[in-house]
Amino acid sequence: MRTSKVFGWLYPLALALLLLLAACGSSTGGGSGSSTTSGTVNTPGGQVQVALQGGSFTQGPTSAQVNPQGYQTPYGGISFTAQVPQAGGTLTVTLTFPQDLPQGAVLLKCTSSTACNPIQWAQIQGRTATFQVRDGGPLDADGQANGRIQDPVALGVPNPDFTIALDPDTLTVQQGSSGTTTLTLTPQNGFTGQVTLTLERQDGTSAPSGISLSPGSVNVAGSGPVTQTLTVSVESSVAAGSYALRVKATSGDLTRYANLSLTVTAPPTPPAAPSELRLTPSSPTAIDLRWTDNSDNEEGFRLERSTDGTNFSVIATLPANTTTYTDTLPSPTTYYYRVKAFNTAGESSPSNVATNSWAKGYLGAKYFSSNEYQ
């Protein structure tokens, strides 16, 4: 009798404990149709845990296929449906990944397999990513404040990339010559590898024949910017004028551009020869020289003197547009003079030769001379 009474009151207690354990077990599950606060999903990158605060799962989480432009998604997409206690409520979602997240990773909200945008206020630290979604808000896929939240998301890692720039981005090159500019290539998101360089018109067509670029590639091995001197060569057959070009940098599916404005000029020609060189004595020991400047492209003049009219040596180099000079005579004898214009292309022909024949004697401060032109 006493034993049966003991079992009589223990049975209801045991039944109550079993029901409590069953309820606790359902709160961390993920079975179909159950209301849960956490669940796991198998993804291409490993198992991801999804925890909710302020709501419970009604479906999922499940794996979804996404392909957002500009991002790699090592864990694919993660989709689930949750309910919140009241319409318009807010749900806090925490994703825990199997390993620390890479630098630059962002959490993406996906409205389709390719339309994914960063969740600006998501917090990413270590292996977790946390964000909030409001029922009927911009992150709720159904867009309705109905107590039901649909939330496909993905962890995005920006694709490796690079930028290029030229300094200077304008060049002036003579026909038959070359010019240089400096290319700066800046890798982004861990980009490394070889980048092929070509020169083309800014409309994408081939560069004019006779204009070439070297070297044809640059290698990126580290995380810092890479600089490379580029040489633009212009053959003598290229017509003078302006060319709107660009450097095209390609690596795999990546292509980047930097514009380059090229002006091709004809090489300079030697200046025209000066003329009408004439001498005027200014003192017993000095003589003034004057001539006519017949060129507009000289860089200067070279004045030459000789004592025999055959072997000349330069006695003065004068700036452009000069037409006078005073020479101090070493001795009262006959000298021969001529003048030439010059520039980077060379010298002009010499002017006429002018001579000053000194008289053999002086009368006080007065002297005699003759001025002859040949």
Describe the 3D structure.
The chain has 374 residues and is mostly beta strands. The protein folds into 3 domains: 29-158, no CATH class; 161-265, Immunoglobulin-like (Sandwich), CATH 2.60.40.10; 275-373, Immunoglobulins (Immunoglobulin-like). Helices cover 7% and strands 52% of the residues. The protein is built from 1 helix and 30 strands. It has one helix at residues 2-26, and strands at 38-43, 46-53, 56-64, 71-72, 77-83, 90-96, 106-110, 116-118, 123-125, 128-134, 148-150, 153-158, 161-167, 170-174, 178-188, 193-201, 211-214, 217-220, 226-234, 241-251, 254-265, 275-283, 286-292, 300-306, 313-319, 324-328, 335-343, 346-347, 354-358, 369-373. The strands form 6 sheets. Strands 3, 4, 5, 7, 8, 11 and 12 form a 7-stranded antiparallel β-sheet that branches. Strands 24, 25, 27, 28, 29 and 30 form a 6-stranded antiparallel β-sheet that branches. The N and C termini lie far apart (157 Å). The relative contact order is 0.09.
As a percent range, the share of strand residues is over 45%
SS element count, helices: 1
SSE-based structural type: mainly beta
* Percent helix range: under 10%
- End-to-end C-alpha gap: 157 Å
Largest sheet, strands/sense/barrel: 7 strands, antiparallel
Q: What is the alpha-carbon Rg in Å?
A: 44 Å
Number of domains: 3
Residue-averaged pLDDT: 86
Q: Low-confidence spans: pLDDT under 50, at least 5 residues?
A: 1-7, 18-35, 359-374
